[in-house]
Amino acid sequence: MISKRKFMAVSTAIFITGAAPGFSQSTPSLKDAFKKDFGIGTALNNAQIEERDPQMTAFIARQFNMATPENIMKSALIHPKWDTYDFSMGDKLIEFGKKHNIKINGHTLIWHSQLPPFIRGIHSQDSIRSFFTDHIKTVAGHYKGKVFSWDVVNEALNEDGTLRKSVFLQYLGDNYITDAFRLAQEASPGTELYYNDYNNEQPAKRAGCIALIKKVKEAGVRIDGVGIQGHWHVGKLPLKDIEESIIQYAALGMKVMITELDIDVLPRNFQGADVSQRMTANEQSNPYAAGLPDTVQQQLAADYEALFNLLLKHKDKVTRVTFWGVNDGNSWLNNWPIRGRTNYPLLFDRANQPKPAFEKVIAATK
Ligand code: 9MR
To answer: Is 260 a catalytic residue?
Structure first.
């Protein structure tokens, strides 16, 4: 018989090598470790929502208590034609959430990107207004009482804090954000309503975000929280800006969330997550295809540790931290801003084994 001490030694060795099959059974659970602090979420892709791999399903259910659909609720997919909505995948996600005790954050009602193709043929204010109103009423109405929260408006700001010249701003004017929150509230009164963006921890964009929140509130319309997406780069986490933003957003009565967390380890010449921005591949652009060097692995772990220490310091204001993908293999950063690279931005490797960053994040709770 194996003694308890020996068992601990063996499992610690396995933890370090991360090689044992089935090891995930003894991996600590993020959602449990942070139970008293904030919710722990992940983005889910189609295969995960459809439970194509039972081990993946069990892993998700063990690690996370909140989830955001990575793509399936975006307007291009859920509202493919003027009069046609497709709720099939979204409904599966709701079932997934119920079955595994995972709260769903709807993503997203109003976004300038991933719009249905028919929008390009519309050039009248009335038609854009009808699309906007029907879309919010129908989608938020369909998921009334089923999603915990909505990212009502996503990425409406430019880097300098001004409003992005989206189709909505162009045709509906600068009250469209307030209108979106009002419509969402009417269609789904019990649901938390958020504004979500990347780089909105940066001072200029943060100021724009604060102005946006104030404008909605001053119109007497409900807004419950703000999502800082958190697409950051290894060795360059803007911790001071993040802290300042948490404090300032919370001072407006907002719940603060990190909604799409990942830490890019590959070369990049700009910050943020504008999906229309791309880079051209060259010989240096995919340096870690054969594995992540230990120095970068340790830097990634140190970044995650510092970030979670900061988030725990402000756990009275931070309500959720959502990773943008379950494991490194799922991450959009393998294909953006250059397709087909090998990135390592999350806490679990391609086999769902915990990385050193995971250990640091769990240790931060102790
Ligand atoms: O991760 C998503 C990726 O699969 C899509 O191709 C991409 C295209 O729109 O959107 C990604 O998710 C984005 C999120 O919806 C909003 N913030 C930035 C995210 C990363 O681009």
So the answer is: yes
